[in-house]
Write a structure and sequence with these properties.
By secondary structure, this protein is mainly β. The protein has no helices and 5 strands. It has a 5-stranded antiparallel sheet, with no helix packed on it. β2 and β3 form a beta hairpin.
Length: 65
């Protein structure tokens, strides 16, 4: 996942089935920090506007938009 940079918008699937769009805020030594922009459903654990950290040790799938 080396082709991502801070500011990129990505479609994000952090170990659940609710697709969402996020902006990368920080890429650190331990993981990624995102701001959720759109696409969350009422059942999703992430909400629009939420800042979300995902460790490199967890399953994460994302696609650059």
């Amino acid at each position: 996942m080396t082709n991502f940079k801070v500011g990129d918008k990505v479609q994000l699937y952090p170990g659940d089935t609710h697709k969402k769009v996020a902006k990368i805020l920080h890429i650190g030594d331990h993981g990624w920090e995102f701001e959720i922009i759109t696409g969350t459903s009422p059942e999703a654990h992430l909400k629009v506007g939420q800042i979300y950290f995902e460790s490199y040790s967890k399953a994460l799938s994302m696609t650059k938009l």
